[in-house]
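pls ignore typos typing on phone
pyridoxal-5'-phosphate + seq
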Amino acid sequence: MTSGPSSPSATDARRDRLDRATAHLDPPLAVLDLDALDANADDLLRRAAGTPIRVASKSVRSRAVLRRVLARPGFAGVLAYSLAEALWLTGGDGPVTDDAVVGYPSVDRAALRALAGDESAAARVTLMIDSPEQLDLVDAVVPPGRRTALRVCLDVDASLRVAGGRVHVGVRRSPVHSAADAAALARTVVARPGFDLVGVMAYEAQIAGVPDAPAGRPLRGLAVRRMQSFSGRELAARRAEVVAAVRAVAPLEFVNGGGTGSVDRTRVEEAVTEVAAGSGLYSPVLFDGYRSFAARPATFFAVPVTRVPAPGLVTVAGGGWVASGPPGVDRLPEPTYPAGLRRLPAEGAGEVQTPLRGPGTAGLGAGDRVWFRHAKAGEVCEHVDVLHALDGDVLVAALPTYRGERKAFG
Ligand SMILES: Cc1ncc(COP(=O)(O)O)c(C=O)c1O
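k done
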């Protein structure tokens, strides 16, 4: 019998380790394997090869974990997903960082008021914009004469446009696509009182977030690799032009790009001063299937078996920890331990219970637990108050999630 990393005995050992360490706890519960987290952080640093990594906090959603990662040289600053979150992470009791870039435009008036009225917050938080409309909105909340200057970053569209723009490959974010678009918006920002233009961000989701070697789908992998290499070349040239054009208008502190799936290719571009990454730390299911890295799954959640509807079937409580994005089975959590469990297509991952079938049901009965991996990284934290931190074979801490700290940022 083989005993390689995926052999039955290795799988059993990984399951036993989780079961034994958490035996005194009642599921539902989530575990963060600190050994895997640290190894994943080191691997991101290796791939970044000296380019600083800004941590995408949406993919972490725990202040304690953010602090642990940011303590490693090479990680610097947070890419937050809401302004309220950025204010919390940079202020309050024990700031996590003094440098938070909000990765998306903010129209939260209360948070904008708080930012504009607090000089130290305004020095630590950078707003994202892609249109003068967002500047107008800020001015309407607090006029420029009555606030400290606010730091602004331009969000530049990194998608691939082909066939004269009729085909769009990538996500729908900013309307600012060309160097001319970016320079025009940069001139608008610098001409307006109460704003400081400090950065440019261009996130290439079609490269950073699409696996280029999906398991069992070689043709899809080939097509994705072709698209990514074409898009990567187009973007590198355009990003250099955009950055040169904006730098001619304002001195920039940073140019951010990339994500977990593209760290090693994005950092090569001279125009880029920092990369963003988050998902690679927890390494959820949607981040399996990349050629440039093989991260170790670091987060798992357990739900209990509550009944056995028929031989070869078990039903677990809950289990519907479904990820955001285009609806599909790839958004459902993956039953991982014991091996050999499958969902029933007719029921999927349920709100209050999830039936499972397959050889893995043998030996499972009420009170046993099934371990899942979430499809995405940070969203697992929306289901639990703490991540139980596993060091070696023992739990060493209960790390509060945002939810555990009574924070919900959408
Ligand atoms: C602006 C931006 N940068 C980077 C990322 C990459 O984050 P991750 O490494 O968690 O995939 C994302 C993810 O959605 C993003 O929206």
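The pocket of pyridoxal-5'-phosphate is lined by residues 56, 59, 79, 103, 203, 208-209, 259-260, 276-280, 377 (CB under 6 Å). The chain has two domains: 8-28+298-405, 35-282. more later
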